[in-house]
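Board notes (copied after class):
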Amino acid sequence: MLYLVDLQGGTLEQLECPYVRVQFMQRVTHEAVVFLGTKDDDADRVFLCNIKDYAKPKFTKLGPVREDKELPFSRAYISIPRAITLQAAETGDPVHGLYYPPTNPDFVAPEGELPPTIFQAHGGPTGREPSGLNLQRQFYTSRGYAW
């Protein structure tokens, strides 16, 4: 998420932002910042975010972090994660996760069939597992696995 903070008035405003992760932000002018942005379906890239007179932010792609980060396949094969909440069996406590469904435009599972699933646990907190394009996950989801 991206926020605009008014230091004089003390207000906080969430801005429309298509990136699931924003890192290494650096102010470049009174109205603009650059940052490393990540999407669920694209490699990390450097962006310029310009906000003039509190208008809707304008994002300009400055380029990939590395030239070899261009995707060698169609975005139709990319699984976009969905936030889910399950209940712990013993305590009923909520367990939050991201579900990456199998995604391949060339294949469809038989009706009522559930996909094999890969579970990845980490020590948390949630922020320790970054969102964004992960080609290892996409390898499996494009082959019929859920992640």
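Comment from the instructor: The longest helix spans residues 135-141. The chain has a mean pLDDT of 85.
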